[in-house]
Amino acid sequence: MAGRIMTDPLEPIGLVSHGLYLPEGRQTAAEAAALSGLTVEEVVELGLVRKCLPGPEDQPVTMAARAARQAFTMTDLVEPEEVDLVLFIGEEYKDYIAQTAAIRLQEEIGCPKAWAFDLVGQGVTSLVGLRVARDLMIGDPTIRTALLAGGTRNLDLVDPRNPATRFLLPSSASGGAMLLQKGFGENRLLEVAFQVDCQMADQVYVPGGGTENPVTFENLGSREMFFQVRDPALVTEYLRDRYPQALTQVIRKVSGSKPPDYLALGHLAPAQRELVLAGLKLSPDRSPPLYLWGRHGPMDPILSLDLGLSAGVLEEGQRVVLAAGGIGFCYGAALLEWGP
Predict the structure, then answer these.
(1) What digits encode the pLDDT tens for the residues 199-249?
(2) How crowded is the C-beta side of 295, counted as CA atoms within 13 Å?
(3) Which partner for 21 in 131, 175, 225, 329 could form a disulfide, CB atoms 3.0-4.6 Å apart?
(4) Minimal CA–CA distance to 150: which of 88, 67, 105?
(5) Which domain does 27 fall in, by range?
(6) Which CATH number goes with the domain that contains 177?
């Protein structure tokens, strides 16, 4: 399954600013090894040198709000009152069950006139947000400014002692935000593409807490409330072979045969990352690894973009691709032309 759409070049939609919130807590590879029973070397092979841990106040919406406020402070072109659309682009696991996080975020940030709703796309929700916001801007003349913000705490759902889900050990906590505006001629959003391997839909999930297996006194605190893998051998093979291949394919959908000038790539284990960069013929210095930060799901591309900007790697006229994958399994990529 795949989706693709081009933006009308006569009506540019640009990334005005972004925001990022990283909690102060950290966990090292040695600490993760002690919790999981793995060696430090095995943990590092998963792409975990250090990761971000949340504090007591670091809930998904709270972290999203902090990132959103930073996005507004990064520009004097947009005020919260001007926002027409608020999208929550964090993980499905959030502060409360059956609450629309986007509306709570809307209230906290002060966007009273906006239409607000949540998106669910696992590790690619931020890219789904770019697609949805852009499509709405193209189709609805009343929507000109969009705030995309979310937070992740999926690390709470990872049992470090479960060998079948060790690939999720780098899971971290953070908040991320992006401000898009129709008619903004800089950092233009040109194309967004997706790919889904639906045959893997039921391979990785949390068994407890849904309608099939509701929360009970018996399953509270049990393994059913953490991520599980239905067929560990199949998932291990998939992550080794298919995952980097699918990521490479979806990046090529937006970048074509020419590699991007900068790739804001989601967290990968070193072996996976090497395959993706080799498949794209992309130099490693054009896409920094996230080994010191952990895996942030849909926030990964925002984190990588922030690292590139902080390092001064991005230049005017460059083709920048944001890309990530997630359990399900799903993949997404977005192409931007950086600068005016």
Answers:
(1) 999 999 999 999 999 989 888 889 999 999 999 999 999 999 999 999 999
(2) 28
(3) 175
(4) 88
(5) 2-185
(6) 3.40.47.10
